[in-house]
Design brief:
Blueprint lengths: L5 H16 L5 H17 L3 H17 L8 H28 L14 H16 L9 H9 L12 H4 L13 H34 L6 H32 L17 H4 L5 H12 L9 H19 L3 H26 L14 H17 L1 H5 L3 H13 L17 H25 L3 H4 L5 H16 L15
Length: about 475
Amino acid sequence: MLFNSLQFLIFFPIVIILYFVLPDKIKYIWLLLSSYFYYLCQDGSVVVYLIIATVISWTAGNLMDKITWLSRKAILISGVTLNLLSLLIIKYSNFVLGLAGSSLKLDIIIPAGLSFYVFQSTTYIIDRYRNETGPEKNILKYALFVSFFPCLLSGPIERSKNFLCQTDVYDNKKFDPVRIKKGLMYMLWGYFFKLVIVPRMLILTDTIFGSYEEMAGSILVLGLFAYSFQIYCDFAGYSFIALGCAGILGYEVTNNFRQPYLARSIAEHWRRWHISLSTWFRDYMYIPLGGNRKGEFRKYINIMLVFLVSGLWHGADLTFLVWGGLHGGYQVIGYIRDNIFRKLGIKIKKPGDAGYGRLHDIFRIVITYLLVTSTWVPFLSANVKDMSGIYSAIVQRFDISSLTDGTVFSLGLGVDNLVFVIGAVVILIIVELACEKKQCDISGLFENVRFPLRWSFYYLLIIMIIFSLNLSSKEFLYQSF
């Protein structure tokens, strides 16, 4: 039962209606039951993994202050290891066997959303060890934290210290038209991403990269630009819908995206993209490794380690290692460049500095976007051979005439859908630029906009969504991680 399915459009209103009717003290139980039902409809054969992650992490976190003969660090290590064990075995067994040179392939089904709820439940163990949160005695409330259905399959990865305290705040759980309106705005924007832009970009990228051996390099570059919007709109679309669903139910969860393609550096891009994951790696891996406290060289090593692990989190394949290595390498090169400039006395201008003009700003944004887009090749490639083949084809067969000879109209979309998706992307870019200028998100952008203009925008999105319902939209990409 995906967010973009008819079943969900029936399921969610039922959840909401009963949620606001039930007494405050048992609302969380209804959400827990709804979350497990949602997961059973999505991937019922592996719901046991969700229960295992819940029991292990809750037990380990709550034993921190109860067992005196065993150190807290021992409980931490054993709890985290046990909690991650299912993820390591299920997701990485074949990868390790392949690195060892074995031809054996285990037929293991990866549960949907496994990496998300395992990482999320692990935060409770670590936060309890650090005394950043108290023990949650009610296992049902804790189970809701792990299984909360808006965030279950593709995040955001919530922290126990931020979520668990919200289950006892009843004021936010009452029917509130303002909060519901805000949540619906997030959901509408997410559905615009997923139902209007993603399926058309999917047709384009599948056509181009499905036969990349025959495509000109310029068409492959066009495919990369299309994929950059496809993956952003697919993942951000899920995140906005999740944000809206959670908000309607009275829960604040992390806004996972903040105009990531308007970043001025790779480091800034990761402060805007998949924010819950990047901050997870920062707080639970980068800083414990020493962060930037042990010298520049150690800082570079830590960055590379974090991004290599982040690559493997996304997928158990060498292509994802390359993807993570590129992002880490770009950041290290940027820091080395900054250090060289400082030693030479060259001032690095930043936004707000005198002489930092709009052209300088645009240049940095464009360069960062191109660097990020270049890393999508290993991400979308099925294997290292395809990855190297695509990179080689871009360099060796680049021919700008392929963009003007009508080839773009033979890539599966046709003229109508191509114009439609270009218009949708223009709307996306205008809204992103407006949000960046006002330093707000989509829900805050129209707060002070007059009624006719605001509702014209809403109706435009709804009409574009209706005209896109005939296109097949696959599952959300990130739920496979």
